[in-house]
Structures are given as structure tokens and as C-alpha cells.
């Protein structure tokens, strides 16, 4: 399958497929025409010697300093060198690759004024898995992700480093081995490369892909816990959710009904005297559904962003280059922070369900062990979920609510979206661990409902757990059990 840069619409699945090499990105004649037309406009502007930001002026607070035509190329090179000030460990290689793909898509829209040869070089990097290293810290999420993108494109001018397999190799050495010349940047190209939101966007794409699975898995965890708790299925009835028709809660309620389908265990206590369950069991559609709504909102915005032009200035004509604010990350940052809260809440309610399974009610032994006293059973893993939940709450502080002026006040409001996107992924990693522990608890609780059987999908997931983690009879080291289930969650082994 071929993806046409600048012509076709990117989606999260297409980006992941491009990054994994399952589909290939190409330049079509139509895209090439747009690129070359835009470049000719820049060259026309340069020939007129009129001061135009990003083309023949300094940057940021130096925008009032005009640069001579002979110095323009040095200006663009210096831009990359001086802005490559990121710190900390490098982001994952996959994230850097996604950044490259998103940048090519933006440049191919025909408003950035860079040369075709420059775009072809980036595509060569993607196709040959020559992925530059990018430090994780240093972007304020406005003026574009300047520092990360500078690092990303240093190899074009022979600086910086590449990931080669899992090793880091100097760009000079790699370019030489591929017989690639260093590209001399020309007017507008340095700024075209480093202005944009691709660092934020790559983290959002990665996070949303993970969240898509965890939303479904959270429903599975909830259903298994409800079954283990001998909870009621009535809060998930279609009629209840039709009279408050939020999309997320309708989806979750339907999924829960399917997860309880043909459950002998659920039928066995259908007419019991219990009036209602605690909220963490009863309100799964409303809580999980709210998180789904947040996911849908961020997904919509991310797919707009990955098909947008986010550098500056934008080249509209031979006489008009608009210096605007399409690089500003606020449009994504606020939605990311909202989605971080949504992910955190999935963990919050999961921890509460774990706690309920330990209480020793409705036929379950306290701490999910028949030999309490000598054995502590599953007492302590809930400490871990509580710790992770608390950590996630602290990570939910919204970076988008903060702004520190930079560039001598020229850039006096920034989004901090890069921090938002990184926190979003940290919270998701913690959620994987929380859900893994709930799966361990729920699987144990189901053992006490035998010989009753459950829906096909719950039985399948119970079997997947038991392949690696046996029922707890007497106390044993639980760390290995937990890590085995975390590994299964991370590798999407469960049926959702």
C-alpha cells in the first residue's frame, strides 16, 4: 500500500503503519508541483530583498534585523545549531520516526517554501530507518517544538546523531556510509524544519494508540470484577443509557452487556436481595464512558493537526508571507491535559474495584485467600495501585495552564504542550500496571464463583492469565505474577 504525502489524509493507524514499514510514503506529481510552486514564491521574495520574517531576518526578538542575501544560508544553518539545546534522555526511536513522517506531511502541503530535495532527504531517512536522536526535554510547545525539531534535523547538515538499530551513531559517519552529501540549507528552510508541533503530536499519536486498547481493556477488567463481586448487570441495560445518551457511556454499556452475555454466574444471582452495588461497579459506563469521550475529542484534534501546516511564516504568494501562530501548541495541549485526567480516572476506579474485591463480602474471602492470618493473600498489591493512582493524580496538573515568556518577551505566551504530551504517556504507563493488578484480583475472585461459568470472552481472558499466573492458594512472591500480567497488557495479549 502507498501513502501519498501531502495528498492523502493521515490517520493514527496510517502513521503507525508508515512507521512500522507496513505502508510506504511517496511523493506524487501533484505534491511535487505544490512543493516547487511554494519554493518559487520564496525565491521571488528573496530576490526582492524585502524584509520577510524567517526568510531574510533574524528570529524571535531579532526579527527586526535584516540579513543580507549572501548570509541567508548561514542564517538557516545557525538556526538549527543554536536551537538544538534539548536535554535529558532521548525519546524512543519510534517517536522520532513519527515526527519525521508528520513533518513530511506538513511540508508537502505546499505552504512552507522548502526545496523538494530537502523533503526527499527526509523521506530517504524514513525509508532507510535512519532516525535522528531527539532529547526528551527542552520544548515549551510554542514557536513550534523548536529544540526537539532542531535535533531531529541536525543530521541534514551533518550534525547530530542517528539511531542505527539500538545504537547511537554520529550523523557524519552514517551519511558517509550512505554516500549522502550534507545539504546546505537555503532561505526559509531552517525555520520550515524546526517550526511545528511534531514533537507534541508524536507523543499524542503514540498515547492515543495505547489508550484505544486500554479503554477496551478497562471494560474487560470492570466486567471481570463485577462477575467476581457478584455484582448486578442491571446498571448496564440499554434503556437506562438511552435516556442519557452520551456516546461514551452508550458504547461502554453495550460492551458490558456483551461481556456478560450467556454468563451462568450472572444468571445464578439474578434475583438476589442486594439493592445496588458501589459506584465503582455500578457506574462503569458513566466513568469509562467519560474517558472515551475525552479520547474521541483528542483523536479528532490530533487528526486535524497531523494534516495541517504548523510552521511559520506561511507562504501564500510571491508577495505575501504571513507570520502567524500555527505553531502554537495550545489547541492540542488543553485537550491532552483533559485526556490525561480521563486516563487517570480509569486507574482511580480500577483501584476502587480492587479494594472491593478484598473486603470479604458476598461469598468472597477477605483478601481473596481462604487462609487469612497466616497468609496476607492479595492485601499488598492494592498498596501499589493506590500509589500509582496517587502518582497519576499529581501528573494530572495541567501544564497548559502555565506559561513562561521566552525570547525576550516576543514569545510571551507558550502552551507547554510538550510537557502535557509526555505526562499523558507517563499516566498511560501507570494505568497499564493498575489494570494488570485488577486483572490478577478479578481472576482470583472468579475462582470463588466456580463451578459457574462466564461469557466466552471473560473465560478466554481468565485462561490467558492462568497460562502465566496460577491461582493463589498460599502466600508466594507476587512481584513476578504482577510483572507477567503487566507484560501481557503492554503487548496487548488480552481479548477486548
List the helices and strands and how they pair.
Layout: E1 2-4, H1 12-19, E2 24-26, H2 29-48, H3 72-83, E3 87-90, H4 93-107, H5 116-127, E4 131-132, E5 135-137, H6 146-153, E6 161-164, E7 167-170, H7 171-177, H8 189-194, H9 198-229, H10 238-242, H11 247-259, H12 264-268, H13 279-282, H14 284-305, E8 314-315, E9 321-322, H15 330-358, H16 381-395, H17 417-447, H18 456-468, H19 479-490
Parallel strand pairs: 1-2
Antiparallel strand pairs: 3-5, 4-6, 6-7, 8-9
Helix pairs in contact: 1-4, 1-9, 3-6, 4-5, 4-9, 9-11, 9-14, 9-15, 9-17, 11-14, 14-15, 15-16, 15-17, 16-17, 17-19
List keywords for this structure.
496 residues, mainly alpha, Fumarase C, Chain B, domain 1, Fumarase C, Chain A, domain 2, 2 domains, 3-stranded antiparallel sheet, two-stranded parallel sheet, 9 strands, 54% helix, elongated
Describe this structure in a few short sentences:
The chain has 496 residues and is mostly helical. It has helices at 12-19, 29-48, 72-83, 93-107, 116-127, 146-153, 171-177, 189-194, 198-229, 238-242, 247-259, 264-268, 279-282, 284-305, 330-358, 381-395, 417-447, 456-468, 479-490; strands at 2-4, 24-26, 87-90, 131-132, 135-137, 161-164, 167-170, 314-315, 321-322.
Describe the 3D structure.
- With 496 residues, the chain is mainly α.
- The chain has two domains: 2-196, Fumarase C, Chain B, domain 1; 203-490, Fumarase/aspartase (Central domain) (Fumarase C, Chain A, domain 2, Up-down Bundle).
- The protein is 54% helix and 5% strand.
- The chain contains 19 helices and nine strands.
- It has helices spanning 12-19, 29-48, 72-83, 93-107, 116-127, 146-153, 171-177, 189-194, 198-229, 238-242, 247-259, 264-268, 279-282, 284-305, 330-358, 381-395, 417-447, 456-468, 479-490, and strands at 2-4, 24-26, 87-90, 131-132, 135-137, 161-164, 167-170, 314-315, 321-322.
- The protein has a three-stranded antiparallel sheet. The protein has a two-stranded parallel ribbon with strand order 1-2.
- A hairpin with a 2-residue loop joins strand 6 (161-164) and strand 7.
- Helix 17 (417-447) crosses helix 19.
- The longest helix has 32 residues, at 198-229.
- It is elongated and about 85 Å long.
